[in-house]
Amino acid sequence: MGMPILSLTEAELRNRTSLKWRTYDPDVLPLWVAEMDVAMHPAVADAVAAAARNGDTGYPHGRDYAEAFAAMAQATWGLELAPPQIRQSGDVMNGILAVLSVTSAPGDAVVINPPIYPPFRQVISGYGRRIVEVPLTDGARLDLPALEAALADRPAAYLLCSPHNPHGTVHTAEELATVAGLCAEYGVQLVVDEIHARLVDPGVRFVSALSVPGGENAIVVTSAGKAWNLAAFKAGLIIGGADAGSVLRRLPPLALQAMGHWAAIAHTAAMRHAQEWVDEVSSEIAANKRLLARLLEEHLPGTVYRPGEGTYLAWVDCSALGLDDPARAFLERGRVAFSPGVNFSSDHRQWVRINLATSPEFVTEAVRRMAATLG
Length: 375
What we know:
This protein has helices spanning 10-13, 19-22, 42-53, 64-77, 92-103, 118-125, 144-152, 173-186, 245-250, 261-273, 275-299, 326-334, 360-374; strands at residues 29-30, 86-89, 109-112, 130-133, 157-161, 189-193, 219-222, 236-240, 304-305, 313-317, 336-337, 339-340, 351-355. By secondary structure, it is an alpha/beta fold. α3 (42-53) runs antiparallel to α10, α4 (64-77) runs parallel beside α10 and α11 runs parallel beside α13.
């Protein structure tokens, strides 16, 4: 048994120049933006290094990434995808933008489930569409009766996050089939962000929206960027259900030219050679969820944390701590950075999102700093 994947030291991580590690002062422990504290998988590093040695810095060619994803989807989920169903593109949010650009018009409504990943709001309101909110239930599940009421108003699209960010909810096959059926009944385009699909706890079954009855009309946008920590390499996939070809054919041509050559190389290597790696990472993340729950109960018993089955993100209710702005207090007094809940929903100012794709030592130190904030 080798070293845990999530075992990089602070000294190693402080050498990084990415957003997570350069936004705050060096005495702040950053557990906020969704970057993982991992080394690049050796097969990915080797593929990128080979491209560098060969001066292979031109334009992307071929469909290796799409084919590698299809092979992974079949092996991991039993999901069969035909080549015409998959388009290679840039990152996930630009892929979603491309889909919304051909399935909605300025002024049209798009449904989301807050609290939600902030770029969902940006891609809707920033491009002239109108946000319709159907919050998750108190148990962090889809509110199916409320969704039906919203979809019956015939919005242009429903933008679903699966697994959900920030809650970590893994939607069931039954929930997804209900959603897909409602979208079909009311003529609503279902668009699903499945970027966290490979990050689920051991024993948990992820279900793609493409695999449920009604999913034939859905569009899924995904990428290896999250599960393999490859955000630096902009590449994504837009995947249509069996009957969604008309949407795929209308996608803006530029959207399908937005993938970088090295990104395609890196993501393809991850898909082909790093499946066991992401299973191990998911196991370590699940252990961090249990650790965080235990530490919060012990040191900050007022907090409420229900671990989700997916993602490496923890959504923590700090309402009982008596802080005006928990994220700011933890940052300014405790010197630990989390994502403020208000970024995900105006109703969640007392929540913080904690990134658990880090070492257990960092999780422990983060809770120590949270407790020190109250001292």
